[in-house]
Structure formats: C-alpha cells, structure tokens
Amino acid sequence: MKKALLAMTAILALGTTAACGGSKDNGNAAPSASSSASDTPSSSPSASPEASKAAPTKVELKIFLGGLDRFREQFDGYFEKFAEKEKQEKNITVTFNSEYPGSDNAPQILKTRLATGDVPDIFSVHAVNEIPSYYKAGYLADLSDQPLAGKLLDGIKPIVSADGKVVAVPMESLAWGYLYNKTIFKEQGLTPPSTLSEMKTVVQKLKDAKITPFELSYKESWIPQLFLPLTVGGLVNSTHPDFLDKMNKGEGSFAEIQEMFDIIDLVNANGTNRAFEKSNDDGSADFASGKAAMWIQGPWNADAILKVNDKFELGVAPLPISDDAKSTLINTSVSTSLATSPDSKNKEVALDLLNFILDDQASNDLYQSLKFNPVSKNHTFKPYSWVEDASAYVNKGESYQDPTIPQAVKDESGKALQSYFDKKMSKEEVIKDLDKTWKDANANASK
User: For the whole model, what pTM was predicted?
Assistant: First the structure.
C-alpha cells in the first residue's frame, strides 16, 4: 500500500496534463433532476440551537460537469451526502441543478456561459489545458485559504494552481498510454512492445490468431485526438526536444515530426470495423467484450469497461511511436478538476462543496468509486492494478509531462484525424491544417 502511494506521488510529481479525461459522451447539456437534503431539523452536535430552530436557508447550486456523464450516479449521490451535511451543520437546504454535457461540446458551452454572465457555481475545467486561460480571464476563484488546499499531494498542487494560488480541486490524475487486454496478451504469449517494429510484430501475431489488434471508435473527435499528446509527447521528450518551442514561436511545422503518422497508420489499418459508428461508450463495450486487444485510450474509461465486464483484466502501457525505445513513454497529467467563480451567487456554499470533495473520510469512497487515483494526503485507498502498471514505467524514468499544446490545436487534430482516417484529408493536408491552427492560436494568445 505504502509503495503504491509512493509510486503515485512520483507519477503526479511529473504530470502536467493530457488527454482528456472525463466522460466522453457527445450528448447535449441537459439539467438533471434536482436533489436536496431532508427538511428534518438537525440533531447534529455542530448545529447551534438557534440554527436548528430557524427556518432553513434554501440554496440551489448550478453545477456544470463537462465530460463526466458516465459518473452521474456517483456525483449525484455524493452531492446528496453534501446536502445532508450542509443541512445538519449550517441549516442550509441545498438543491442541485446539474448538467453533464459531453466532452466534444462542453468547453464551448461553458465559455459561452461564463462570457455571458450565466455562471455555474461549480464547473469542471481541464487542469493544464484550461486553468491558465480561465484564470487569466478572471473565471477562477482563489482557493488557497480553503482547507482543501493543504490536503493536496505536493506533486498535484502546482498543476491546479496559477500564480501560486490553488484555483481548482483535482479529480482525475492520470498516467496513461494505451489500454490492452491482459487476458488476450497472456493467452497469446505477448508483452507490451517497446518499439514500433515490435508493435508491428504484436499486431501480426494477433491477426494470425484471428484477433483484431485495435479498437477504433472515432464517432467523437476527442478520441482520435488522443494520438496528438501521445505522439508529440514521446517525440518532444526524445528526438525532437525543441518542437514545442519552435511551434510557439511560429517557426516550426508538424512536417518535422511526421513520423507521428507511422503509429496512426498502423492502428487505423488494423482496427475494428465501422469506426465512425462507435462512440466512447460503444468502444468501451466492445473492448470489454474482447473484440480487440488494444485501444488508444486512457484509464479514465476503466469504470465504463468494468461495468460491462467486471472480470476484465485491464493493462496500461506506453505507446511505441518509432524504433527509438526512448520515445516509448507514459504520459502523466491531471485532467478534470472542479472550480468555482469569483462571481458565483452562492460562493459560500460552493466553497463548502469543493471542500467536501476532499473530505477526509467520504472522498476516499468517492475517488475509489470513480476509479480515480489518490490526490489528497488523506487518501488511503489502494490504487488499481492498471495504475501500478503505469507506475512501474514511471519509476524507471520512462514517462514525461504531458505536452502543453493549445486547446484549439487539440480540438482541430481530432477533426483532422477523423478526416485522415476517412481519406478526406492527406497527411500533408493534416500537417498544413495543424500548422495554421497553431499559428492562429499564437496570434489569439498575444491579443
């Protein structure tokens, strides 16, 4: 247990952001049914006699959790526990107007809400991709003086901070590459490959055994987008260390790292059928059912996979992108985090909820039910086996901090790689498109 937690601390000390976490449904934002605490007078010792006798204050919290629809049951249940606590301790009856939009449209919906003054009391942000710009725009309240700030693991706190201020509560901390079916690998006598050539050998052995090598689910653009941080991250931390700097100065091009397409082509040529009909949920169900041996996807899908097949043996390994084993690395990051705005109309209760997210006792059950990793010094639950898989690579120095890539480039890469798979864009056209998108992002950032 102690060893596992130390391993995770090592991971988180390296992490700076990746893929995308959270639910990756493409559903529309729709409020869930409101929930509330009982109106029964509190008998809690912490509630004052005056508070117990007074009529309860009523507060409705507007909550926006983009990309977390697959965890609706866990979050809604946890919010109920918070409502009970708030009623007992402060005589406040809390109800919730909760939305769970999908990852493809959540960022734009949230930006529109914030820009027009329709500010949720609690909302999700991607720690590395979005915290800097949201903080600069004044959308994130300073949480540094809250009890939650002192609980964060040392490797996590900087990732959810801006200007030295804690501005979000981390949910998903990640160590990822691709997922593989351990049962299939064991039965076929395979081990995760270290180079692209070794991956080609694994692919051929699987095909010889009549097993489809890769799950393809490209209905949602954020899934093919996952190739971007994995390939860029591996190459930047091995053979192309200056790529990001050059792109940020407007002096580089994806043509310099076009070997990134080698693994993309290998996966696309050896995957399941009807990729554009398969959503993330469909992909999870197929993968859990053994329809493919590997999936370019992250452990944030563990819950969805195990709900379909609770006996599934999930493995995580770094994705080979060339024949240089030094570029085969685990990506470490913190993705989904929760924040509140300085303009929240219910800021006091919103802060209470954010602190409850890291409650010393209740949060252990929450994070474990979500199959997330420990983020608090007071988290005592044992990390899952796939976390330990990734930790083994990290402990050997085979990992990197997720590359900081403009969000516009990530979004565009998903759409471009969909078109590339569908043969509507050539490799050269994808490169040209991503180069232009990065230059435009540079121009917008300088305004």
Answer: 0.74
